[in-house]
Amino acid sequence: MPHIAIISSSVRTGRKSHRVALYFKNYLETNHQATVEILDLAEYQFPLFEERLKFQKKPSAATLDFAKKIKAADGVLIVTPEYNGGYPASLKNAIDLLYDEWRRKPVAISTVSDGPFGGMQVITSLQYSLWKIRAWTVPALFPVPKINEAFDEKGIPSDPPATDKRAAIFVNELLWCVEANKRMADNKQTK
Fold this sequence. Notes:
The longest helix has 31 residues. The chain is α/β, with parallel strands linked by helices. Helix 4 links the parallel strand 3 and strand 4. It is built from seven helices and five strands. It starts with a strand and ends with a helix.
């Protein structure tokens, strides 16, 4: 069974995007599709980016833990809010911290907003940052508009059948990419 790391990106007081991270953890585990761990950037509290992990002389235990968990994950699902048309500095910080750990890692993106567009303005800048570090962005999205109406604080959707139907398409694409990545790595090792 693949292991998925879900990055909950917001560190903001009163954040709402974490609801979607909770939903996906429950969805993947309930459907026995993957083992899951939420990497909550609010708990890591990384300092502002100073240097990539591989160049740090004395990396913090939290930095080493985060790197280890990203490296060990078969795929990553990023849940990010939209802040003024962009993604939060906490996520940019976490992305820039690592490099080799992201290489060819399947990464799915779920965007969240209070408004009607579900954070779609985040996609271009976030995908570009991930491409630059050689992550493999999954060609499926899971935008969540009007987060207050869509999910409660525990990650329970207001319309479970419709949400689960959309999630199935999104998650299946991530898991397909995880499997394809694994087969390519296995194929390389046998040659």
